[in-house]
Amino acid sequence: MTKNQKIALGCGGLGCLGLIVLVVIGIGFYFYFQRSSFAYNVNRSSNYNLNTNRNSNSTSSSNTNSTSVASTSMSDDDQHKLFQAASMTQDTELMHRVWKKLGLWNEDDTPAEGYGAFAKDHILWAFKSVDFIQSVNTPEKARAEVRRQAGLGIKFIGEMALTPKPGPTATQMENLRAIVDESKKAGVWIQIHAVSPQAMMAAVDAGVPKLVHTPHFGWLSFEDATRVAAAGVKQLSTIGFGVPVFGVFANDNKPRFRDGKAWPESILDGDGRGQEAGYKAVNARTSWDAGVIYGYGTDTGYEPRAGLEHELKTLNLMFSMQDIIKLMGPNTASYIEMSNDLGTLEKGKLADIVLLGGNPLEGYWNMLNAKVVIKGGVIMVDKR
Ligand SMILES: [Zn+2]
Q1: Mean pLDDT of 282-307
Q2: pLDDT in the model for residue 69
Q3: How far away, in angstroms, is 30 Cα from ligand 1 center?
Q4: pLDDT tens, 362-375?
Q5: Residues 6+ apart with CB under 8 A from 120
Q6: Cα 296 to averaged position of ligand 1 atoms, centre (Å)
Q7: CA of 206 to the centre of ligand 1 (A)
Q8: For 225, which of 64, 124, 231, 290 could close a Cys bridge (C-beta 3.0–4.6 Å)?
């Protein structure tokens, strides 16, 4: 497997000047990470099982298909906890039995009608239930998962989420320190999801080398940003998070959040009126001015070119085009530890080049006007 393939495996094709859809991969990893390594608290006889306390009809019909009754008597939160707990076992038979109980899986082992919507909601639930998910993890399991992923040739592991408000829990920090220590031994990079200054600084103090996001719950102080730079921690932008999206989901000129729902109401854990957009933009400049190696990342799941445009439009608020070229080029290459191969046009580096149809120094919109795409010296796209 080539170096590029390993990185692609590890972080989903992150490339300089490329479109980075880290959030989608982060969530994928988040579930994969949770599901694959922490398979110890859910078994047929402990707390989230079919036979005792979670299934109000457990005594009478726990092993038969009293699905609708069981799921309707459970709160939404309990259904998601059960779904999560079963998923973490990696035991397909047990997972299907639980999903049947929840009315999400058919007897012929196919997804029931509501499975898709539930699974989608589960992603949002997981982000709001970090405490629950982390409360069933241990440093030993975390270390084992780091070793397992390193064994697969994955170089970039993450993103692990830390509770932003009021801040990371003691369990999270204990697991994080174990993950950081084990990642150094295994020679892999850990990336962290920290969207408040307190979570970000806790991650930096725990020795985390890479931050996937710029915080949006509170102001990052220049002193703290200077500490991040001094620790050599690298960070990605993803600052379009709180900024309304237009024209991607509908041409009705209505502001929307990245999931297509109403802005600002749908912003994840938003504190109101999209203030997250303000925090992110200013905090980005604070990191930059403090000397943090600050690269490019989006936090979107919609059409990549629209995600690029949205992030560039937001960066344009606080950065000059000269800054943005450095941010997307050498800084992002540095974030993925590929400065020897990518990031600048220099003799001996990979000939991965995008020729634009206009001068990017005149405006970010010219960065959307790709005319020729060259990979390894070979023209892949030619729109001249
Ligand atoms: Zn994230």
Answers
A1: 96
A2: 47
A3: 9
A4: 999 999 999 999 99
A5: none
A6: 14
A7: 18
A8: 290
| Tokens (6 digits) for 220 | 């990052």
Distance 343 CA to ligand 1 centre (A): 24
Q: 316 C-alpha vs ligand 1 centroid, how far in Å?
A: 22
At residue 101 the predicted structure's pLDDT band, cuts being 50, 70 and 90, is confident
Distance 77 CA to ligand 1 centre (A): 22
What's the pLDDT at 151? 92
- pLDDT above 70 covers what percent of the chain? 79
Per-residue burial over 104-115, b = 16 or more CB atoms within 10 Å of its CB, e = otherwise? bbbeeeeebeeb
Q: How far is the CA of 162 from the centre of ligand 1 (A)?
A: 9
Encoded tokens for 286: 């604070």
Q: What is the pTM for the complete model shown?
A: 0.71
Task: Tell whether the model's pLDDT for residue 277 goes beyond 80.
Answer: yes
Residue 90, pLDDT score: 67
3-state secondary structure of 247: coil
User: In CATH, which of 3.40.50.300, 3.40.50.2300, 3.20.20.140, 3.40.309.10 is domain 139-340?
Assistant: 3.20.20.140
Q: Are 183 and 190 in contact (CB under 8 A)?
A: yes
User: In this structure, are residues 278 and 215 in contact, taking their beta carbons and an 8 Å threshold?
Assistant: no
- The b-or-e profile of 192-216 (16+ CB within 10 A means b, else e) is bbbbbbbbbbbbbebbbbbbbbbbb
Q: What are the domain boundaries of the chain?
A: 21-133, 139-340, 351-384
Nearest in space to 335 (alpha carbons), one of 211, 225, 234, 192: 234
